Fold these 2 entries.
Entry 1:
Amino acid sequence: MRKFKEKNINSFFYFFYIMILTALYLGLYNFFSLRKELNPGFGNAISINNNNDICIANKKNIECQKNLFKNIDNNNTNILFLGNSQTGAINHYQEGDESFITSLNKKSNLSKISIQAKGIWLPNANLREFEIIYKSLKNCFIDPEILFLPVFLDDLRRDSIRQELDSYEYYLCKDLINTKSDENLPTRDIKLTGNIEKLNNKIKSKTNIFNKLKSLNGKVRVDLYKLRNLIFNIKPSSIRRVKRAAYQENIKSLENIIHDREIGNFKTFIYIPPLLNSDNKGPIPYDKNEYLIFKDQVKNICKNEKCIYLNLEKSVPNEFWGLKTSTTFNNKKLERDFMHFTHKGHNILSEKLLDILISHIK
């Protein structure tokens, strides 16, 4: 009996000792890591500030998106670009650099066509998320005459929907729909309604530690991501194989968007986005056979549905892509960035898009 008690006491102190060490580690990690900016997931590329042309899509940034669509000029052909961080970030950013969307608007003013381009983007957005954004806009009576939709093979490896899009439609439609009541507003998700959400928001607003813990959790995930890359020697040029189930779900969402646009008799451009080393002068992060099959499938979808297929993979030359910080813990080493290009690359892409629009808008 005595040995049993001693064993329990030792177990208690051992557990208590582990808890103290864990708390100390998290405290030190919190102190040092929160002094740094959380890696947004795209290295040296800097996200573009919200403006009248482009916004990031989430509930926290809803006012920017409302202003984006309140400022639509119906005398112009309205164009909407959905995109990921290739749309919303510029590599080796310098003050005054602009996205290809802003550059396109400026160039169109000097051309023979009257267009107004807007952009909504999310880092690593998949097609299922694009479908949610598109349907939300439509239910808010925002139906652009022309829609540009990029299809990134890498982003089709994930089919989950991020929390930022929960009740996105409700928050976006509020104030955009001209109504004196909430009768015409979409219903919010049940899981986000009621007193629980209000209580959570009140606690978060009053208690700063929860925001810090959220940031800490993000930093832990980034470090785990870097640790995985270090252990398995994963590099930017490492082959990203297709995940069949997620791929099919995303393709289904693509077809849903195209079909809905066809019913409304709107123009839809589906494009293969610019890709570093698409000129075969270096490695690409895909299995070449899977990449070819993917491009053929997207092209065939536009043959069967009413959309215009564009292959823009070679539109930005290699010299206008940038470098990014290491995907492991070797922060001194810079790596090729296969997703983001420089301001010059954005400018070149805008020129290509303007030529395309001139040939399709009569």
Entry 2:
Amino acid sequence: MLCMILVSCTGQKTGKENDNNDKIAIEVGEIKFPPQDVLQLKSYYLSSSVHVDSIDYLIGYNYRLHSLDCMNLKSKSVTQIVLPGDGPDAIVRLSGIYAQSLDSVWISDESERAFLIDSVGTIKRMIDLKKYLEDQEQLLINTNYAMFTSHLFYNASRHSLMFLVKHTPSNTFIVKEAFIDEVGKMATYQLSSSKVVPDMSKGYAYINFPNVNFVGENIVYNYPVESSIYMLDILADSHYTSNIIEKCTTSGDYATLEKHWLENSHFYDIMYLPKYKIYARLHADKVDFDEKKGMEKLINERDLYLMLFDENMEKIGETKLSNCRYSPFTSWNATYGGIALFVDNVLDEKNNTDDLTIDIISLK
């Protein structure tokens, strides 16, 4: 049975039981950051985590200051790495982050380059990812709450960068592995199409791309429109929400497509928790579209669910998270021993300040 425990800032706990007969229990602990000397955000749509000396850190992209904000989840402190915005080494708006260590962070930007930077923002290496693309191929490093999430990854044992690419004429997806110490050397890995919705070329607009993540030597991926998890072809059905979204029957404007997205479930990328050797995935439930409410309220009131899987991708737990508490804009990340979610929702009347607060979901 799943038991969800909420740890408040006063140390009190409240719990509720779930009738889903799950095999695992979780708890939610809140971390409130005191005022900082840097201007951090309240939540980060793009972030990466790193575990150093038994301490979890989150490194988030501060798009307002064009910096990387390093959050120490133990000391509740935030430091900042300012990124160069001018000159020959200028870095533009980021598309991906992979923290290898606190002093070695890989980032990619909208110029389709990858950079290795240290803890003071010095660029140690630059890789032009465009050189690894063929004609009619599209680089897909992206984190977008309404579309898909495909991560940048550095494989330390193979000295390689890995990223998703779309071959436009065939509408197929490939993961490319660029061996950065061997000029021109590259490996490719073809991703299979969805077994549930094999043809997403029509009716799914901008959500027909896969979510792609990397765990060790494995590529783990799924599609936002249905609940299967791939490489192992094992279904991971939700007991609470629809597991396949409906096609959009009209080819209307952006407002029509956004309405379709809200009226259907949306499945996010697969995350890995090394401490427990389990996988996790968040997904948003559909809402009843009411134009009078406005888009901001509809997006922020969507219910968010957490599903957990063992090493064999067998589902071991699912629970609904607190409503109107978390940012719906991909403001979460896996840490060594849990999932960090930024407490930031415009409908949350209890947390209506700009203070940085993070909930950590871990196994009980």
